[in-house]
Amino acid sequence: MILDNTLTLDGFISVVRGSEKVELSAPARARIQTARDVIERIVDGEQAVYGVNTGFGKFENVQIDKHQLAQLQYNLIVSHAIGLGDPLPDEVVRGMLLLRAQSLALGHSGVRAEVVELLLAFLNHGIHPRVPAQGSVGASGDLAPLAHLALALIGLGEVDYGGQVRPSAEVLAELGLTPLTLQAKEGLALINGTQLMGSVLALALADARTLLDTANLAAAMTVEAKYGSHRPFQPDVVGLRPHPGAVAVAGELRAHLAGSDIAPSHLTGDGRVQDAYSLRAVPQVHGASWDVLAHAERVLATEFASVTDNPLIFPDTGEVVSGGNFHGQPLAVTVDALKVAVAELGSISERRTEQLLNPALSGLPAFLTPQGGLNSGFMIAQYTSAALVSENKVLSHPASVDTIPTSANQEDHVSMGAHGARQLRDIVNNVAGVLAIELACAAQGLDFQELTPGVGVDRAWKYIRTLMPTLEGDRYFRPEVLRIREAVLSGELIAAARGE
Prior knowledge:
- By secondary structure, the protein is mostly helical.
- Helix content is 57%, strand content 5%.
- The longest helix is centred in the middle third of the chain and has 31 residues, at 195-225.
- It is an enzyme of class 4 (lyase).
């Protein structure tokens, strides 16, 4: 991939998860140099410019001698690398490397091209700095986490390379890479930004897309296993309240249910008037989540094309401006909305699982086991689903409504976006498990049917049976549910349902 002035979510995923190589474009290199020229002129002059030849935060009024500017930037990184907690996953760190390079390549940060080139070298060689998860309040950027990222660039700290945790300097020497000696403005440019929360949001959004598609499939399978009605999903019904998400979800349900022999079978002799909300209102509930995902994609597209550094360099005028582009609020409130949207996919899924397991609701054997009493069937699988859904209720509390002053009240409002981003990641993983349990139960419910379900449902059912055989009697089936969960997150299950 050529790093220039555009980056898409699909491009991000191809680099972060697909290990696609990245190189800096010639136009980006020219933009970077033009902005760097502005910094060099400031260094040679006498004017005090924040972040270039002054201290930081509350020390903004302390001017630094030009001969100490390299030491200033070094001090900034080593003093700010004070994060705590478990290391972030490698894919999150890869995303941080890519997004930091992308922002610097837009040419308003004043770094040398060598800084961006080393960020890309880390990506391309699979060198992943060890970045503690805790320490960002999400305002002056993700300062502490990004400082740990920068620490590896200057040959300090540890990296994960080839599956081993090793000193950064050792790995750089082995690969023939030279650690950075930071020059004026460069340390600040590396740590002022929203790249932790942006990376987690991008990864979670990609997963949430897959979860939403899979939730639609799971709902269709449960509808078929319970002899549910297809009528609420028809265009004339949904069209009377045509939110884009509801329309899109209803369309996916109809595609999965097309050709069903089960639906026509209960048009006569069935005393039920209407299905439970968790079946009948899937377009409206899943559709609301669809709309939030669409908004998050728009926010992320803007963020990918943004400069989140401070101060900002305007090469055309030579102006250097302190602003608030580093503040994480646009991402923080989006993350919080996405937390709720994804959590709701799990909440309604758990209710559909209950519809399948409860014989008073399903018309199927209790807990989907042929010999209840001797066997418990899927009884405790629903407990696990309920536990995950309840955990998500706590995680969904908005982090962005909190703030706490830092830097002697200079930074007096913060976003807490990194907190929300980590919660979002946990919610995504929980919902994948909830959906895996519903899918396992729906497949078992379909085993009791003698008619052919809709085409997408039928394909998914058969695919699940390659991962998890029918539960004839009690056995240890956790590994099988985990295989289904993996097929959910990888997108393999939804691809099978679509015949791809």
